[in-house]
Structure formats: C-alpha cells, structure tokens
Amino acid sequence: MDFVDKLSALQAMLDLWRNKINSGRITMFSHLCSYVEDCEISISEALQNDIATHLQSLKDEFSRYFPETTKSKFNLVRNPFLAKIDDCIPDNHDAAQEDFIKLVNDSGAQTLFSRVDLPSFGVLCLEAIQ
After folding, report:
1. Domain range for residue 89?
2. In terms of domains, do 57 and 14 share one?
3. Do residues 1 and 74 make contact, with C-beta atoms less than 8 angstroms apart?
4. 84 close to 75: Cβ distance less than 8 angstroms
C-alpha cells in the first residue's frame, strides 16, 4: 500500500512539474535552474515542450507498468471501517461479503483498530476467526 501512495504522489508530481514547465518555471529542476542562472540564459519554448512531453511520457509509462493501482482497492486493508463493500469484495464472494459486514459493524473491532497498529489488528482478527 505504501507503494501505491508513493506511485500516486509521483504521478501527481509529474503533472505538477509539467504544468510548471509549461509556465516557464524550472525551479523543480535544480541542475537545469543552476545552469540557466549561471549562463544567464533562458530556456526556449521548444525545450519547455520537450520537457513537458517527456514528463507526460514518464507518467504514461508508470500507468502502463502499474495499471491497477487505485487506492480504493486497498481500503479494506488500510481501514476496513471506511471501505465500501462494492469497492473491495467482488459480488460473487458471498461469505467474504458477510464477514466484511460483521467486521465493520463490530464496535469492539472498531475500538481495537483505533488502539493498535494495522499489522497487529490484522493478526488479532485472524486469531479471532480461528
């Protein structure tokens, strides 16, 4: 899950940087910024377009390599009490859906979830069902 968060942040950064470069701002590229300042030059519109195109292609490649990284798929693991059953459990898994409903309506489990870390909560839930 940490990976999904980092990948989402990186893709958002690529969008941010692309928007900034399209506005002529290059401060996020420290080496390029230093070079431009040291040489007392400005970057051309063609170079801005090349950088923006490259940033978009990077984002597209990440999306191609990791196509299924929507955060809602992991809500059941991150915080089952905020997850929606339709987002995390397929309709044809009746027993899992019933277990999910029992869990999210268990006030003891909600209290436990707020008091322990996520891995401990998972272990304690597994122990409870066995």
Report:
1. 72-129
2. yes
3. yes
4. yes
